[in-house]
Amino acid sequence: MADSKTDLRIIRTKESILTALIDLIEEKGFETITVKDITTRANINRGTFYAHYQDKFDLMAKCEEKVMLEISSIAKQNFPNVIASLEMDSSNVPPFPLTVSLFEYLNKNSDIMRALLGPKGDLSFQTRLKEFMWDTLYGTNPIALVKEENFLVPGQYLSSYMGTALIGVVQQWLNSGRKESPQEMARILTIINVNGPFYAAGLKK
Amino acid sequence: MADSKTDLRIIRTKESILTALIDLIEEKGFETITVKDITTRANINRGTFYAHYQDKFDLMAKCEEKVMLEISSIAKQNFPNVIASLEMDSSNVPPFPLTVSLFEYLNKNSDIMRALLGPKGDLSFQTRLKEFMWDTLYGTNPIALVKEENFLVPGQYLSSYMGTALIGVVQQWLNSGRKESPQEMARILTIINVNGPFYAAGLKK
DNA sequence: ATAATAAAAGAACACCGTGTTGTTTTATTA
DNA sequence: TAATAAAACAACACGGTGTTCTTTTATTAT
Protein backbone atom coordinates (compact mmCIF):
# COMPACT_ATOMS: atom_id res chain seq x y z
CA MET A 1 0.00 0.00 0.00
CA ALA A 2 1.64 3.23 -1.15
CA ASP A 3 1.22 6.20 1.16
CA SER A 4 -1.57 7.59 -0.97
CA LYS A 5 -1.43 11.37 -1.21
CA THR A 6 -4.52 13.42 -0.62
CA ASP A 7 -6.66 13.86 -3.69
CA LEU A 8 -5.82 17.02 -5.59
CA ARG A 9 -9.47 17.99 -5.69
CA ILE A 10 -9.60 18.07 -1.92
CA ILE A 11 -6.62 20.37 -1.75
CA ARG A 12 -8.10 22.69 -4.35
CA THR A 13 -11.47 22.73 -2.66
CA LYS A 14 -10.04 23.47 0.76
CA GLU A 15 -7.86 26.23 -0.63
CA SER A 16 -10.83 27.80 -2.39
CA ILE A 17 -12.82 27.70 0.82
CA LEU A 18 -10.01 29.24 2.85
CA THR A 19 -9.44 32.05 0.35
CA ALA A 20 -13.16 32.75 0.21
CA LEU A 21 -13.33 32.80 3.99
CA ILE A 22 -10.47 35.26 4.34
CA ASP A 23 -11.95 37.57 1.70
CA LEU A 24 -15.40 37.47 3.22
CA ILE A 25 -14.19 38.12 6.76
CA GLU A 26 -12.56 41.33 5.63
CA GLU A 27 -15.57 42.30 3.53
CA LYS A 28 -18.46 41.69 5.92
CA GLY A 29 -17.09 40.18 9.11
CA PHE A 30 -17.22 36.60 10.28
CA GLU A 31 -20.50 36.77 12.12
CA THR A 32 -22.57 37.74 9.08
CA ILE A 33 -20.97 35.24 6.74
CA THR A 34 -23.16 32.32 5.64
CA VAL A 35 -22.03 28.97 4.36
CA LYS A 36 -23.77 29.92 1.12
CA ASP A 37 -21.59 33.03 0.90
CA ILE A 38 -18.49 30.95 1.21
CA THR A 39 -19.45 28.30 -1.33
CA THR A 40 -20.67 30.86 -3.85
CA ARG A 41 -17.43 32.80 -3.54
CA ALA A 42 -15.35 29.63 -3.71
CA ASN A 43 -17.30 28.35 -6.73
CA ILE A 44 -18.11 25.04 -5.14
CA ASN A 45 -21.32 23.25 -4.37
CA ARG A 46 -22.74 23.85 -0.96
CA GLY A 47 -22.89 20.14 -0.28
CA THR A 48 -19.17 19.90 -0.87
CA PHE A 49 -18.57 22.29 1.99
CA TYR A 50 -20.42 20.03 4.37
CA ALA A 51 -18.30 17.11 3.19
CA HIS A 52 -15.30 18.81 4.78
CA TYR A 53 -16.64 20.93 7.61
CA GLN A 54 -19.54 20.74 10.00
CA ASP A 55 -20.37 24.42 9.69
CA LYS A 56 -18.65 27.78 9.44
CA PHE A 57 -17.53 27.61 13.05
CA ASP A 58 -15.84 24.29 12.44
CA LEU A 59 -14.07 25.77 9.45
CA MET A 60 -12.93 28.71 11.50
CA ALA A 61 -11.73 26.50 14.34
CA LYS A 62 -9.65 24.31 12.01
CA CYS A 63 -8.23 27.37 10.35
CA GLU A 64 -7.22 28.87 13.68
CA GLU A 65 -5.78 25.65 14.98
CA LYS A 66 -3.44 25.53 12.01
CA VAL A 67 -2.19 29.03 12.76
CA MET A 68 -1.70 28.28 16.44
CA LEU A 69 0.35 25.20 15.64
CA GLU A 70 2.60 27.16 13.31
CA ILE A 71 3.17 29.89 15.86
CA SER A 72 3.78 27.27 18.49
CA SER A 73 6.45 25.70 16.30
CA ILE A 74 8.15 29.08 15.91
CA ALA A 75 8.25 29.44 19.66
CA LYS A 76 9.91 26.05 20.01
CA GLN A 77 12.54 26.86 17.40
CA ASN A 78 13.49 30.00 19.29
CA PHE A 79 13.88 28.38 22.67
CA PRO A 80 15.29 29.56 25.09
CA ASN A 81 12.96 32.50 25.13
CA VAL A 82 13.03 36.19 25.21
CA ILE A 83 13.52 36.86 28.85
CA ALA A 84 16.78 34.96 29.12
CA SER A 85 18.48 37.33 26.69
CA LEU A 86 17.52 40.58 28.43
CA GLU A 87 20.31 42.79 29.67
CA MET A 88 18.74 44.38 32.71
CA ASP A 89 20.12 47.87 32.69
CA SER A 90 20.30 48.51 28.98
CA SER A 91 17.79 51.00 27.65
CA ASN A 92 18.68 50.15 24.09
CA VAL A 93 18.30 46.39 24.02
CA PRO A 94 18.30 44.52 20.73
CA PRO A 95 14.94 43.06 19.66
CA PHE A 96 14.31 39.55 20.92
CA PRO A 97 14.88 36.89 18.25
CA LEU A 98 11.57 35.21 19.02
CA THR A 99 9.71 38.46 18.53
CA VAL A 100 11.43 38.96 15.19
CA SER A 101 10.51 35.44 14.10
CA LEU A 102 6.94 36.06 15.15
CA PHE A 103 6.63 39.20 13.04
CA GLU A 104 8.28 37.42 10.13
CA TYR A 105 5.64 34.73 10.33
CA LEU A 106 2.87 37.31 10.52
CA ASN A 107 4.38 39.06 7.54
CA LYS A 108 4.38 35.90 5.43
CA ASN A 109 0.81 35.03 6.40
CA SER A 110 -0.53 38.54 6.54
CA ASP A 111 -3.75 37.82 4.66
CA ILE A 112 -5.09 35.26 7.07
CA MET A 113 -3.66 36.98 10.12
CA ARG A 114 -5.23 40.28 9.16
CA ALA A 115 -8.55 38.51 8.73
CA LEU A 116 -8.36 36.68 12.05
CA LEU A 117 -7.00 39.58 14.08
CA GLY A 118 -8.73 42.42 12.26
CA PRO A 119 -11.72 44.39 13.58
CA LYS A 120 -14.08 41.93 11.85
CA GLY A 121 -12.18 38.83 12.91
CA ASP A 122 -12.74 36.33 15.67
CA LEU A 123 -12.66 37.52 19.25
CA SER A 124 -12.23 34.10 20.79
CA PHE A 125 -9.15 33.55 18.67
CA GLN A 126 -7.62 36.76 19.94
CA THR A 127 -8.34 35.71 23.49
CA ARG A 128 -6.65 32.37 23.00
CA LEU A 129 -3.74 33.89 21.13
CA LYS A 130 -3.22 36.44 23.88
CA GLU A 131 -2.91 33.75 26.53
CA PHE A 132 -0.73 31.69 24.25
CA MET A 133 1.57 34.65 23.65
CA TRP A 134 2.14 35.20 27.31
CA ASP A 135 2.90 31.55 27.90
CA THR A 136 5.36 31.19 25.06
CA LEU A 137 6.91 34.64 24.84
CA TYR A 138 7.05 35.79 28.42
CA GLY A 139 5.59 32.95 30.39
CA THR A 140 7.17 31.05 33.19
CA ASN A 141 9.31 28.13 32.07
CA PRO A 142 12.57 26.56 33.28
CA ILE A 143 14.70 29.13 31.49
CA ALA A 144 12.71 32.28 32.03
CA LEU A 145 13.77 34.62 34.78
CA VAL A 146 10.19 35.53 35.55
CA LYS A 147 9.48 34.98 39.23
CA GLU A 148 6.08 35.76 40.59
CA GLU A 149 7.43 36.81 43.99
CA ASN A 150 9.28 39.77 42.43
CA PHE A 151 6.15 41.16 40.79
CA LEU A 152 5.03 44.64 41.82
CA VAL A 153 1.53 43.91 40.54
CA PRO A 154 -0.54 40.69 40.35
CA GLY A 155 0.79 38.40 37.63
CA GLN A 156 -2.58 37.98 35.96
CA TYR A 157 -2.71 41.67 35.13
CA LEU A 158 0.85 41.74 33.91
CA SER A 159 0.02 38.82 31.67
CA SER A 160 -3.12 40.49 30.31
CA TYR A 161 -1.32 43.76 29.87
CA MET A 162 1.57 42.40 27.83
CA GLY A 163 -0.51 39.87 25.95
CA THR A 164 -3.13 42.30 24.75
CA ALA A 165 -0.59 45.03 24.12
CA LEU A 166 1.30 42.71 21.79
CA ILE A 167 -1.88 41.76 19.94
CA GLY A 168 -2.78 45.44 19.66
CA VAL A 169 0.54 46.38 18.12
CA VAL A 170 0.31 43.46 15.70
CA GLN A 171 -3.21 44.49 14.70
CA GLN A 172 -2.13 48.04 14.09
CA TRP A 173 0.78 46.88 11.98
CA LEU A 174 -1.35 44.50 9.89
CA ASN A 175 -4.14 47.01 9.37
CA SER A 176 -1.87 49.88 8.40
CA GLY A 177 -0.21 48.03 5.57
CA ARG A 178 2.88 46.60 7.27
CA LYS A 179 5.09 49.58 6.42
CA GLU A 180 7.74 48.59 8.98
CA SER A 181 9.92 45.50 8.66
CA PRO A 182 9.52 42.62 11.13
CA GLN A 183 12.87 43.61 12.66
CA GLU A 184 11.73 47.18 13.14
CA MET A 185 8.47 46.03 14.71
CA ALA A 186 10.32 43.78 17.12
CA ARG A 187 12.50 46.72 18.05
CA ILE A 188 9.50 48.95 18.69
CA LEU A 189 7.80 46.37 20.84
CA THR A 190 10.96 45.69 22.81
CA ILE A 191 11.53 49.36 23.56
CA ILE A 192 8.04 49.81 24.94
CA ASN A 193 8.09 46.60 26.92
CA VAL A 194 11.48 47.15 28.51
CA ASN A 195 11.24 50.87 29.24
CA GLY A 196 7.48 51.33 29.41
CA PRO A 197 5.04 53.22 27.23
CA PHE A 198 5.49 56.53 29.05
CA TYR A 199 9.21 56.43 28.45
CA ALA A 200 8.59 55.56 24.79
CA ALA A 201 6.31 58.58 24.59
CA GLY A 202 9.08 60.85 25.80
CA LEU A 203 7.32 61.52 29.10
CA LYS A 204 9.93 60.05 31.42
CA LYS A 205 13.68 60.35 32.13
CA MET B 1 -48.38 70.49 25.42
CA ALA B 2 -46.71 68.83 28.40
CA ASP B 3 -43.34 67.21 27.76
CA SER B 4 -44.88 63.74 27.70
CA LYS B 5 -42.66 61.16 29.38
CA THR B 6 -41.91 57.91 27.64
CA ASP B 7 -44.50 55.22 28.18
CA LEU B 8 -43.66 52.98 31.13
CA ARG B 9 -44.22 49.92 28.95
CA ILE B 10 -41.47 51.00 26.60
CA ILE B 11 -39.03 51.36 29.46
CA ARG B 12 -39.93 47.97 30.84
CA THR B 13 -39.68 46.31 27.45
CA LYS B 14 -36.31 47.83 26.70
CA GLU B 15 -34.97 46.86 30.08
CA SER B 16 -36.15 43.30 29.63
CA ILE B 17 -34.47 43.14 26.24
CA LEU B 18 -31.22 44.53 27.57
CA THR B 19 -31.12 42.13 30.50
CA ALA B 20 -31.86 39.21 28.20
CA LEU B 21 -29.14 40.32 25.81
CA ILE B 22 -26.52 40.56 28.53
CA ASP B 23 -27.44 37.15 29.92
CA LEU B 24 -27.41 35.51 26.51
CA ILE B 25 -24.10 37.02 25.48
CA GLU B 26 -22.43 35.46 28.49
CA GLU B 27 -24.24 32.16 27.94
CA LYS B 28 -23.75 31.52 24.24
CA GLY B 29 -21.96 34.50 22.74
CA PHE B 30 -23.39 37.31 20.65
CA GLU B 31 -22.92 35.71 17.28
CA THR B 32 -25.11 32.71 17.98
CA ILE B 33 -27.90 34.67 19.63
CA THR B 34 -31.16 34.91 17.69
CA VAL B 35 -33.86 37.52 18.04
CA LYS B 36 -36.12 34.68 19.09
CA ASP B 37 -33.71 33.84 21.90
CA ILE B 38 -33.85 37.38 23.16
CA THR B 39 -37.61 37.75 23.06
CA THR B 40 -38.20 34.36 24.64
CA ARG B 41 -35.83 35.20 27.46
CA ALA B 42 -37.31 38.66 27.86
CA ASN B 43 -40.86 37.32 27.85
CA ILE B 44 -42.00 39.63 25.11
CA ASN B 45 -43.52 39.06 21.72
CA ARG B 46 -41.08 38.86 18.87
CA GLY B 47 -42.96 41.55 17.00
CA THR B 48 -42.43 43.91 19.91
CA PHE B 49 -38.68 43.58 19.49
CA TYR B 50 -38.93 44.75 15.90
CA ALA B 51 -40.97 47.73 17.03
CA HIS B 52 -37.86 49.01 18.83
CA TYR B 53 -34.88 47.62 16.94
CA GLN B 54 -34.14 46.70 13.36
CA ASP B 55 -32.30 43.53 14.32
CA LYS B 56 -29.91 42.22 16.94
CA PHE B 57 -27.05 44.25 15.50
CA ASP B 58 -29.06 47.42 15.84
CA LEU B 59 -29.79 46.52 19.45
CA MET B 60 -26.12 45.91 20.10
CA ALA B 61 -25.11 49.17 18.45
CA LYS B 62 -27.56 51.23 20.52
CA CYS B 63 -26.44 49.45 23.66
CA GLU B 64 -22.80 50.18 22.93
CA GLU B 65 -23.46 53.77 22.01
CA LYS B 66 -25.03 54.32 25.42
CA VAL B 67 -21.92 52.97 27.14
CA MET B 68 -19.60 55.06 25.02
CA LEU B 69 -21.51 58.21 25.87
CA GLU B 70 -21.33 57.49 29.58
CA ILE B 71 -17.61 56.85 29.46
CA SER B 72 -17.18 59.97 27.40
CA SER B 73 -19.00 61.96 30.04
CA ILE B 74 -16.68 60.55 32.71
CA ALA B 75 -13.70 61.69 30.70
CA LYS B 76 -15.10 65.20 30.45
CA GLN B 77 -15.72 65.40 34.18
CA ASN B 78 -12.11 64.51 34.88
CA PHE B 79 -10.62 67.04 32.52
CA PRO B 80 -7.74 67.94 32.44
CA ASN B 81 -6.53 64.44 31.89
CA VAL B 82 -4.10 61.97 33.21
CA ILE B 83 -0.95 63.09 31.57
CA ALA B 84 -0.99 66.56 33.06
CA SER B 85 -0.75 65.18 36.57
CA LEU B 86 2.27 62.93 36.01
CA GLU B 87 5.36 63.60 38.08
CA MET B 88 8.10 62.58 35.67
CA ASP B 89 10.69 61.02 37.92
CA SER B 90 8.47 59.37 40.44
CA SER B 91 8.38 55.60 40.39
CA ASN B 92 5.55 55.55 42.88
CA VAL B 93 3.02 57.89 41.32
CA PRO B 94 -0.54 58.04 42.61
CA PRO B 95 -3.20 56.53 40.35
CA PHE B 96 -4.70 59.00 37.88
CA PRO B 97 -8.13 60.26 38.95
CA LEU B 98 -9.58 59.60 35.51
CA THR B 99 -8.44 56.00 35.61
CA VAL B 100 -10.02 55.58 39.04
CA SER B 101 -13.28 57.06 37.76
CA LEU B 102 -13.17 54.73 34.80
CA PHE B 103 -12.81 51.64 36.97
CA GLU B 104 -15.54 52.90 39.25
CA TYR B 105 -17.86 53.15 36.28
CA LEU B 106 -16.90 49.67 35.11
CA ASN B 107 -17.52 48.38 38.60
CA LYS B 108 -21.01 49.86 38.71
CA ASN B 109 -21.88 48.52 35.26
CA SER B 110 -19.97 45.29 35.49
CA ASP B 111 -22.71 43.11 34.04
CA ILE B 112 -22.97 44.87 30.73
CA MET B 113 -19.27 45.62 30.53
CA ARG B 114 -18.36 42.02 31.17
CA ALA B 115 -20.75 40.97 28.42
CA LEU B 116 -19.42 43.50 25.91
CA LEU B 117 -15.74 43.06 26.71
CA GLY B 118 -15.79 39.37 27.57
CA PRO B 119 -14.50 36.55 25.38
CA LYS B 120 -17.95 36.17 23.83
CA GLY B 121 -18.56 39.87 23.42
CA ASP B 122 -18.31 42.20 20.47
CA LEU B 123 -14.95 42.67 18.85
CA SER B 124 -15.84 45.84 16.97
CA PHE B 125 -16.82 47.44 20.26
CA GLN B 126 -13.45 46.66 21.74
CA THR B 127 -11.75 48.17 18.71
CA ARG B 128 -13.75 51.35 19.02
CA LEU B 129 -13.29 51.53 22.77
CA LYS B 130 -9.55 51.08 22.43
CA GLU B 131 -9.27 54.05 20.09
CA PHE B 132 -11.59 56.03 22.29
CA MET B 133 -9.50 55.27 25.36
CA TRP B 134 -6.33 56.53 23.78
CA ASP B 135 -8.03 59.72 22.65
CA THR B 136 -9.60 60.54 25.99
CA LEU B 137 -7.13 59.09 28.47
CA TYR B 138 -3.79 59.62 26.83
CA GLY B 139 -4.56 61.32 23.53
CA THR B 140 -3.30 64.65 22.35
CA ASN B 141 -5.35 67.59 23.51
CA PRO B 142 -4.60 71.18 24.57
CA ILE B 143 -3.64 70.12 28.10
CA ALA B 144 -1.82 66.86 27.47
CA LEU B 145 1.92 66.94 27.45
CA VAL B 146 2.09 64.30 24.76
CA LYS B 147 4.17 65.55 21.87
CA GLU B 148 4.66 63.34 18.86
CA GLU B 149 8.17 64.66 18.18
CA ASN B 150 9.43 63.25 21.47
CA PHE B 151 8.23 59.72 20.72
CA LEU B 152 10.83 56.99 20.54
CA VAL B 153 8.45 54.83 18.54
CA PRO B 154 5.69 55.67 16.02
CA GLY B 155 2.67 57.11 17.80
CA GLN B 156 0.24 54.70 16.22
CA TYR B 157 1.93 51.77 17.94
CA LEU B 158 2.13 53.54 21.25
CA SER B 159 -1.57 54.24 20.96
CA SER B 160 -2.39 50.63 20.08
CA TYR B 161 -0.13 49.34 22.81
CA MET B 162 -1.62 51.38 25.62
CA GLY B 163 -5.17 51.17 24.35
CA THR B 164 -5.24 47.40 24.07
CA ALA B 165 -3.23 46.90 27.24
CA LEU B 166 -5.83 48.89 29.16
CA ILE B 167 -8.67 46.85 27.65
CA GLY B 168 -6.81 43.65 28.47
CA VAL B 169 -6.38 44.57 32.11
CA VAL B 170 -10.02 45.60 32.35
CA GLN B 171 -11.12 42.31 30.81
CA GLN B 172 -9.01 40.32 33.22
CA TRP B 173 -10.41 42.24 36.15
CA LEU B 174 -14.03 41.81 35.03
CA ASN B 175 -13.64 38.12 34.23
CA SER B 176 -11.87 37.24 37.46
CA GLY B 177 -14.59 38.58 39.69
CA ARG B 178 -13.37 42.13 40.35
CA LYS B 179 -11.47 41.18 43.51
CA GLU B 180 -9.48 44.45 43.52
CA SER B 181 -11.04 47.84 44.18
CA PRO B 182 -11.20 50.42 41.40
CA GLN B 183 -8.51 52.39 43.23
CA GLU B 184 -6.24 49.38 43.39
CA MET B 185 -6.77 48.66 39.69
CA ALA B 186 -5.93 52.22 38.79
CA ARG B 187 -2.76 51.91 40.85
CA ILE B 188 -1.76 48.69 39.10
CA LEU B 189 -2.34 50.15 35.67
CA THR B 190 -0.45 53.30 36.52
CA ILE B 191 2.59 51.39 37.79
CA ILE B 192 2.84 49.36 34.62
CA ASN B 193 2.26 52.31 32.33
CA VAL B 194 4.74 54.63 34.01
CA ASN B 195 7.55 52.16 34.71
CA GLY B 196 6.89 49.54 32.08
CA PRO B 197 5.78 45.92 32.30
CA PHE B 198 9.33 44.54 32.70
CA TYR B 199 9.90 46.77 35.69
CA ALA B 200 6.56 45.71 37.13
CA ALA B 201 7.65 42.09 36.68
CA GLY B 202 10.76 42.70 38.74
CA LEU B 203 13.03 42.27 35.73
CA LYS B 204 14.54 45.74 35.70
CA LYS B 205 16.36 48.09 38.06
C1' DA C 1 -63.16 57.79 36.60
C1' DT C 2 -63.21 57.52 31.86
C1' DA C 3 -62.10 58.18 27.13
C1' DA C 4 -58.28 58.50 23.94
C1' DT C 5 -54.09 56.64 22.78
C1' DA C 6 -50.55 53.59 21.70
C1' DA C 7 -47.86 49.73 23.16
C1' DA C 8 -47.77 44.81 23.24
C1' DA C 9 -49.64 40.34 21.98
C1' DG C 10 -50.96 37.22 18.64
C1' DA C 11 -51.27 35.13 14.11
C1' DA C 12 -50.05 34.51 9.49
C1' DC C 13 -46.99 35.17 5.58
C1' DA C 14 -43.06 34.65 2.14
C1' DC C 15 -38.25 34.38 2.27
C1' DC C 16 -33.75 32.52 3.05
C1' DG C 17 -30.03 29.81 5.02
C1' DT C 18 -29.27 25.31 7.24
C1' DG C 19 -27.95 20.63 7.38
C1' DT C 20 -29.05 16.16 5.39
C1' DT C 21 -29.74 12.52 2.01
C1' DG C 22 -29.96 10.64 -2.13
C1' DT C 23 -28.27 10.24 -7.25
C1' DT C 24 -25.43 11.48 -11.12
C1' DT C 25 -21.32 13.31 -13.20
C1' DT C 26 -16.56 14.10 -13.41
C1' DA C 27 -11.74 14.19 -12.04
C1' DT C 28 -7.91 11.67 -10.03
C1' DT C 29 -5.38 7.73 -8.95
C1' DA C 30 -3.39 3.27 -9.45
C1' DT D 1 -8.08 2.10 -18.88
C1' DA D 2 -10.65 0.56 -14.90
C1' DA D 3 -11.56 1.55 -10.07
C1' DT D 4 -12.38 5.00 -6.91
C1' DA D 5 -14.11 8.87 -4.66
C1' DA D 6 -14.72 13.74 -4.90
C1' DA D 7 -17.78 17.17 -6.50
C1' DA D 8 -22.09 18.55 -8.56
C1' DC D 9 -26.89 18.44 -8.50
C1' DA D 10 -31.53 18.16 -6.60
C1' DA D 11 -34.88 17.79 -3.15
C1' DC D 12 -36.33 17.86 1.65
C1' DA D 13 -37.84 19.44 6.42
C1' DC D 14 -36.59 22.72 9.69
C1' DG D 15 -36.07 27.08 11.95
C1' DG D 16 -35.17 32.02 12.25
C1' DT D 17 -36.22 36.44 9.78
C1' DG D 18 -38.65 40.52 9.00
C1' DT D 19 -43.18 42.23 7.81
C1' DT D 20 -48.19 43.12 8.12
C1' DC D 21 -52.47 42.86 10.06
C1' DT D 22 -55.87 42.49 13.84
C1' DT D 23 -56.94 42.18 18.71
C1' DT D 24 -56.04 42.96 23.47
C1' DT D 25 -54.27 45.46 27.21
C1' DA D 26 -51.82 49.03 29.77
C1' DT D 27 -50.86 53.90 30.23
C1' DT D 28 -51.77 58.62 29.76
C1' DA D 29 -54.32 62.80 29.75
C1' DT D 30 -58.76 64.93 30.43
TrEMBL record, chains A, B:
Report the leader peptide range: none
The record lists the organism as Niallia taxi
Gene3D superfamilies hit by this protein: Tetracycline Repressor, domain 2
What is the protein's name according to its record?
A: TetR/AcrR family transcriptional regulator
Q: What ranges are recorded for DNA binding? A: 34-53
Q: What are the HTH tetR-type domain coordinates in residue numbering?
A: 11-71
One GO molecular function term?
DNA binding
Source lineage: Bacteria, Bacillati, Bacillota, Bacilli, Bacillales
Its keywords, alphabetically, are: DNA-binding, Repressor
Residue ranges the record marks as coiled coil: none
**Does the entry feature the keyword GTP-binding, yes or no?**
no
| The keyword Repressor is annotated on this UniProt entry | yes
